[in-house]
């Protein structure tokens, strides 16, 4: 079957089409992402009103391009999956209203998808072996930091989450403090790669706390005060970036391994925009190998780490099979949608 996915929860207008064989083999036929990063860069963050207008301008051309790249006609699409939340309300609206209109015009079922669920399912796009459940998934993005126990397909239990800032936010706000650009994650990681080590010491928040929750706002404050005390910080940006990245990665890896042990999982997965981070990818993979014998590790290809619609179509496929579809006028958007 062919499934079309639409993602507009933040600042990427994305449409993808997957072909999924009866045996479950997945081929991404198109994965079009129209990014607004350059537009928001000058404001140092996403401006919701601008994001909304950009989605309206781009969504139909992106749907067209996706169909064209896949070489398909609308009649060949079996279902339309769309992100219904969580996200910016005015951004989500473009995707959801477009999906509704297409579902009505093309007479297709709609599959509502949770954005975090989409990130989790990015792991299922290029699978080499079937995932063994239970799995623990570290989902780290600009808006979310979750440890999700995946007991089976579509069976989620959040066992840990951030109490304040998300991991991606810690990268973004850290970069903003050092005035090195937006979005901070890739820039911090680039600077960090040019330092071998760092004398600077930042805290690993809640690393030894009971449970699996995270907190990154204290790290941000610690960075702010360390920078204030250091008159020479501008000459040490790579070292600051190195330590900021280490503090975030070490905390994420440590909690994930602890949760994997507690829940006796068979697989550890990684997802979300921050999963594009090379250091995190390597550190988590190594920790699973060293500390969790017999446990499998998986992570999405880089193309499916930051926001994209292939992951939404992938999650949509599993929802479609679980008969979690709705007709065009029954879909509901929820900007605070919980994972369930
Ligand atoms: O999943 P995503 O594209 O959007 C949300 O759902 O929030 O994640 C965006 C986040 C941003 O905070 C960005 O700085 C971070 O992912 N990010 C990275 C890297 N690439 C993107 N963080 C660390 N290292 C990266 N290479
Ligand atoms: Zn995301």
TrEMBL record:
<keyword id="KW-0819">tRNA processing</keyword>
<feature type="binding site">
    <location>
        <position position="172"/>
    </location>
    <ligand>
        <name>substrate</name>
    </ligand>
</feature>
<feature type="binding site">
    <location>
        <position position="277"/>
    </location>
    <ligand>
        <name>substrate</name>
    </ligand>
</feature>
<feature type="binding site">
    <location>
        <begin position="139"/>
        <end position="143"/>
    </location>
    <ligand>
        <name>substrate</name>
    </ligand>
</feature>
<dbReference type="GO" id="GO:0061711">
    <property type="term" value="F:tRNA N(6)-L-threonylcarbamoyladenine synthase activity"/>
</dbReference>
<comment type="similarity">
    <text>Belongs to the KAE1 / TsaD family.</text>
</comment>
<dbReference type="InterPro" id="IPR017860">
    <property type="entry name" value="Peptidase_M22_CS"/>
</dbReference>
<comment type="function">
    <text>Required for the formation of a threonylcarbamoyl group on adenosine at position 37 (t(6)A37) in tRNAs that read codons beginning with adenine. Is involved in the transfer of the threonylcarbamoyl moiety of threonylcarbamoyl-AMP (TC-AMP) to the N6 group of A37, together with TsaE and TsaB. TsaD likely plays a direct catalytic role in this reaction.</text>
</comment>
<keyword id="KW-0479">Metal-binding</keyword>
<feature type="binding site">
    <location>
        <position position="119"/>
    </location>
    <ligand>
        <name>Fe cation</name>
    </ligand>
</feature>
<feature type="domain" description="Gcp-like">
    <location>
        <begin position="27"/>
        <end position="313"/>
    </location>
</feature>
<dbReference type="InterPro" id="IPR000905">
    <property type="entry name" value="Gcp-like_dom"/>
</dbReference>
<keyword id="KW-0408">Iron</keyword>
<dbReference type="GO" id="GO:0002949">
    <property type="term" value="P:tRNA threonylcarbamoyladenosine modification"/>
</dbReference>
<dbReference type="Pfam" id="PF00814">
    <property type="entry name" value="TsaD"/>
</dbReference>
<keyword id="KW-0963">Cytoplasm</keyword>
<keyword id="KW-0808">Transferase</keyword>
<feature type="binding site">
    <location>
        <position position="185"/>
    </location>
    <ligand>
        <name>substrate</name>
    </ligand>
</feature>
<dbReference type="GO" id="GO:0005737">
    <property type="term" value="C:cytoplasm"/>
</dbReference>
<keyword id="KW-0012">Acyltransferase</keyword>
<feature type="binding site">
    <location>
        <position position="115"/>
    </location>
    <ligand>
        <name>Fe cation</name>
    </ligand>
</feature>
<dbReference type="InterPro" id="IPR043129">
    <property type="entry name" value="ATPase_NBD"/>
</dbReference>
<dbReference type="GO" id="GO:0005506">
    <property type="term" value="F:iron ion binding"/>
</dbReference>
<dbReference type="InterPro" id="IPR017861">
    <property type="entry name" value="KAE1/TsaD"/>
</dbReference>
<feature type="binding site">
    <location>
        <position position="307"/>
    </location>
    <ligand>
        <name>Fe cation</name>
    </ligand>
</feature>
<dbReference type="InterPro" id="IPR022450">
    <property type="entry name" value="TsaD"/>
</dbReference>
<protein>
    <recommendedName>
        <fullName>tRNA N6-adenosine threonylcarbamoyltransferase</fullName>
        <ecNumber>2.3.1.234</ecNumber>
    </recommendedName>
</protein>
């Amino acid at each position: 079957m062919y499934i079309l996915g639409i993602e507009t929860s933040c600042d990427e207008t994305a449409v993808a089409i997957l072909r999924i064989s009866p045996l479950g083999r997945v081929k991404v036929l198109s994965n079009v992402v129209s990014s607004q990063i350059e537009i928001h860069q000058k404001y140092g963050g996403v401006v919701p009103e601008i994001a909304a207008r950009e989605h309206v301008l781009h969504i139909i051309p992106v749907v067209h391009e996706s169909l064209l790249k896949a070489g398909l006609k609308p009649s060949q699409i079996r279902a339309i999956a769309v992100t219904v939340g969580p996200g910016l309300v005015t951004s989500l609206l473009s995707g959801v209203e477009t999906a509704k209109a297409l579902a009505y015009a093309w007479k297709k079922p709609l599959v509502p998808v949770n954005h975090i669920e989409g990130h989790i399912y990015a792991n299922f796009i290029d699978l080499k072996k079937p995932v063994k459940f239970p799995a623990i998934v570290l989902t780290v993005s600009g808006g979310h930091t979750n440890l999700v126990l995946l007991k089976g397909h579509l069976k989620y239990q959040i066992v840990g989450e951030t109490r304040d800032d998300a991991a991606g936010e810690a990268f973004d706000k850290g970069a903003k403090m050092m005035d090195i650009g937006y979005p901070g994650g890739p820039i911090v990681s680039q600077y960090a790669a040019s330092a071998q080590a760092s004398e600077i010491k930042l805290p690993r928040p809640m690393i030894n706390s009971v449970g699996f929750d995270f907190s990154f706002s204290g790290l941000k404050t610690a960075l702010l005060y360390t920078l204030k005390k250091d008159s020479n910080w501008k000459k040490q940006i790579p070292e600051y970036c190195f330590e900021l990245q280490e503090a975030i990665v070490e905390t994420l890896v440590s909690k994930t391994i602890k949760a994997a042990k507690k829940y006796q999982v068979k697989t550890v997965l990684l997802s979300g925009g921050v999963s594009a981070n090379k250091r995190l990818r390597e550190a988590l993979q190594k920790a699973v190998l060293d500390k969790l014998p017999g446990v499998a590790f998986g992570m999405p290809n880089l193309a499916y780490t930051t926001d994209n619609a292939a992951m939404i179509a992938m999650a949509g496929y599993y929802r479609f099979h679980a008969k979690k579809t709705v007709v065009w006028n029954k879909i509901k958007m929820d900007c605070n949608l919980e994972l369930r």
